[in-house]
Write a structure and sequence with these properties.
Layout (H helix, E strand, L loop, with lengths): L14 H26 L11 H9 L3 H6 L10 H14 L4 H27 L1 H12 L5 H5 L4 H22 L2 H17 L10 H12 L4 H7 L1 H20 L11 H15 L1 H4 L2 H4 L2 H6 L1 H22 L3 H21 L2 H5 L10 H9 L1 H6 L5 H46 L5 E4 L2 E6 L11 E2 L7 H9 L5 E5 L9 E5 L2 E2 L2 H9 L3 E4 L34
Parallel strand pairs: 1-4, 1-7, 4-6
Antiparallel strand pairs: 2-3, 2-5
Length: about 550
C-alpha cells in the first residue's frame, strides 16, 4: 500500500500580521494614487480634442430615453450608458468646461489602477500586485483613453470588467446569503458592461477564464458549479450582441480584410511585449526600422513572448502567465476582427486600454517568477526588477511627451474659443490651426502616437458649440504654415489659402486670427513651456462691419 502522507497545514496569519499587511497595502494604494496624479494630473488643463466636440454636441441634443433605447444616428455602435453619463455631466455641471469630463477620465483610470491592485493581490500577493498596477498606471498605449473625452467608453468598460472580477472574488470568499449578494452584484455589473462599450459583451467569457485560473479542484467542476450564474451573464451578453449586429442599421464602412486582422494581431503583440518592442527604436537604425517595421515587431514579439513565458515557467507560474496573456488577447478580439488597421487601429492606441490590465500583470509577475527559481533566485528577481524599472522610466517619458503635445493642442483649441468669446456673432477666420501634432519618430515601430486637436473632418463651429453653447460662421485656412516645430510636426487644419484671400475676408468684416506664432518657439518638454500657440500671436483681430 502506498504510504499516507500528512496534509500540509498552511499557517494562518495572526490579527497583528493581517493588520500590518493591510497597512502595507494601503501604503501601496496611496503610492499608486500619487503615480496616477503625477502622470495624468495635467489632463485637467486639456481642452476638448479629437471627436469630443462632435460626440458631446450630439448627446446634448438627444433625450435620455433616446440615448437608452435608440442608437444615435450615424454611429456604428450602441453605448447607451456612456452617452447617458455624458449628458448627466452636462446637465448637472453645465458640461461646457472640459475639466469636468477630464476629471472623470482621470478618476476612472485611478479606479481601474486600484481595482487591478486589489484583484492581483488576491492571486499573487501585495508586491506583484503593486508592480502590475504601477505598470498599468503608466501603460504608454493608454494615453489616448485617459486624455481624450470621447475615449471614455474604454475606461468605463474596463472599470466594469475589473469590478466584476473583484465582486466575484468577494463572493467566493463569503458563504451563504452574503456570498450570493456579492455574486449578484458582480452579475449586474457584468450585464451593464456592454452598455459602456461593445467589448463588454465579453464580460461573461472573462469571468469563465477567471474561474479557470482560480479553480483548485479542477476547472470543469468549477465551471459546472458556477454554471447558473454564468448562464445569466452569457445570455445577457448574447442579447446585446444580437442587437448590436442585427438590431439597427449602421453606416457603411470599409470592409475588414484578413490582412487587416493580421496587422491588428501584430499591433496587439507589439503592445503585449511592449517592454522589449520599445527597445527596437533604441537598438536598431531608424531608417532600416521604418522599412522593416512589421518584420522587426513580429520577430521581437515572438522572441520576447517565448523568453517571458520560459521565465514564468521556471518560476512555476506558467499557467497564471498564459491566462493573463489570454485575457489581454480576448478583450482585444473585437478590435482585431471588426476594425480596419489603416485609418483606425494604427491611429487608435486607446483601443488597447481594456487589454492593458492583463498585459501589465503579465510583466508585473516577472520578478516573482525570478524569485521562485530553484537556482539563482536573486539573479532572476533582480533581472525582473530591472525590467520593471526600465519599463516604468520609458513609459513615463512617453506619457510626458504626449502630455506636452496635448497641452499645445489644447492651447490652440482654447485660443479659438477665446476669439469667439471676445467676438460673439462675428464670422471668424482661423489661420494655421493644428489638426494634429506628431513626433518626427515614435518610440514603437507600428502605429501613430501623436495627439489630435480639431480633426480635419470637424469644423471649429462644433468646438464653439460644445464650449460656449453657440455656433457662428468659422472658416479654417492654411496660409504658409510652419510645419516643423523642432521636436514635433503639425498637420494644419483647413483649406489652402493666401494673403490676398485673408485681406478680402478682412475687408468683408471677418475676424481673422492666426493661431500659429510668427516666430514659433522650439519648445521641448524638458526645457521649455508649450508657448507655440498664444491668443496674442499672429494677425490682429479686425472688425470693419456689423456681424453677419
Amino acid at each position: 500500500m502506498p504510504r499516507k502522507t500528512k496534509r500540509e497545514v498552511v499557517p494562518q496569519a495572526t490579527p497583528h500580521q493581517k493588520q500590518k499587511a493591510n497597512l502595507v497595502f494601503a501604503t501601496i494604494l496611496l503610492g499608486l494614487l500619487v503615480e496616477v496624479l503625477v502622470l495624468y494630473g495635467p489632463t485637467l488643463r486639456f481642452s476638448f480634442l479629437l471627436d469630443d466636440s462632435y460626440d458631446l454636441v450630439v448627446v446634448r441634443h438627444t433625450s435620455y430615453w433616446e440615448l437608452l433605447f435608440q442608437p444615435l444616428p450615424g454611429f456604428s455602435y450602441y453605448r447607451p450608458l456612456t452617452f447617458v453619463l455624458y449628458k448627466l455631466v452636462h446637465d448637472l455641471w453645465g458640461g461646457t468646461e472640459p475639466w469636468h469630463y477630464h476629471f472623470l477620465s482621470v478618476l476612472l483610470h485611478l479606479l481601474n489602477t486600484l481595482l487591478l491592485a486589489l484583484l492581483a493581490r488576491r492571486v499573487v500577493g501585495s508586491v506583484s500586485a503593486a508592480l502590475s498596477a504601477s505598470l498599468f498606471a503608466a501603460f504608454p498605449f493608454a494615453y489616448q483613453a485617459v486624455q481624450i473625452v470621447c475615449a471614455l467608453p474604454h475606461l468605463l468598460v474596463t472599470s466594469a470588467m475589473l469590478a466584476t472580477l473583484v465582486l466575484w472574488e468577494q463572493g467566493r470568499e463569503q458563504t451563504g446569503h452574503t456570498g450570493r449578494l456579492w455574486r449578484c452584484a458582480a452579475m449586474v455589473v457584468a450585464l451593464a458592461a456592454p452598455g459602456f462599450h461593445e467589448t463588454g459583451v465579453l464580460s461573461g467569457t472573462v469571468v469563465i477564464l477567471w474561474i479557470v485560473l482560480r479553480s483548485r479542484a479542477g476547472w470543469r467542476r468549477a465551471l459546472l458549479v458556477e454554471s447558473g450564474w454564468l448562464s445569466v451573464v452569457l445570455f445577457g451578453n448574447s442579447i446585446f450582441l444580437f442587437f448590436w449586429f442585427w438590431g439597427f442599421d449602421k453606416p457603411e464602412s470599409r470592409p475588414v480584410t484578413l490582412l487587416d486582422q493580421l496587422k491588428n494581431l501584430v499591433f496587439w503583440s507589439q503592445a503585449a511585449t511592449y517592454p522589449l518592442t520599445r527597445q527596437l527604436t533604441n537598438l536598431v537604425d531608424t531608417n532600416w526600422l521604418a522599412r522593416h517595421a512589421w518584420q522587426a515587431v513580429i520577430s521581437t514579439a515572438l522572441i520576447a513572448g517565448i523568453i517571458a513565458l520560459l521565465y514564468h515557467a521556471f518560476g512555476t507560474q506558467l499557467r497564471l502567465a498564459l491566462v493573463t496573456l489570454a485575457l489581454s488577447l480576448l478583450v482585444f478580439l473585437p478590435a482585431i476582427f471588426f476594425l480596419p488597421y489603416h485609418g483606425y487601429l494604427e491611429d487608435g492606441p486607446r483601443l488597447l486600454y481594456p487589454a492593458a490590465p492583463a498585459i501589465a500583470t503579465f510583466w508585473g509577475l516577472v520578478p516573482q517568477a525570478g524569485w521562485h527559481w530553484r537556482q539563482g533566485r536573486w539573479l532572476g528577481a533582480t533581472l525582473g526588477i530591472l525590467l520593471i524599472i526600465v519599463t516604468l522610466t520609458q513609459s513615463s517619458a512617453f506619457l510626458k511627451q504626449r502630455t506636452t503635445l496635448a497641452l499645445l493642442a489644447s492651447c490652440a483649441q482654447e485660443t479659438v474659443v477665446e476669439v469667439a468669446r471676445a467676438n460673439p456673432g462675428w464670422p471668424l477666420v482661423i489661420v494655421n490651426a493644428p489638426a494634429w501634432l506628431a513626433l518626427h519618430y515614435y518610440e514603437y515601430p507600428l502605429g501613430h502616437f501623436g495627439m489630435n486637436a480639431q480633426p480635419e473632418y470637424l469644423g471649429f463651429d462644433a468646438l464653439l458649440e460644445v464650449r460656449l453653447g453657440w455656433r457662428q460662421p468659422v472658416q479654417s485656412l492654411v496660409v504658409e504654415p510652419t510645419l516643423d516645430q523642432g521636436w514635433y510636426t503639425i498637420g494644419p487644419h483647413g483649406l489652402p489659402g493666401n494673403q490676398a484671400q485673408l485681406n478680402a475676408l478682412r475687408m468683408s468684416g471677418w475676424v481673422i486670427r492666426n493661431i500659429q506664432s510668427a516666430n514659433p518657439a522650439q519648445a521641448h518638454p524638458e526645457k521649455d513651456s508649450p508657448s507655440l500657440y498664444s491668443p496674442d500671436d499672429g494677425i490682429p483681430v479686425s472688425k470693419t462691419t456689423t456681424p453677419q
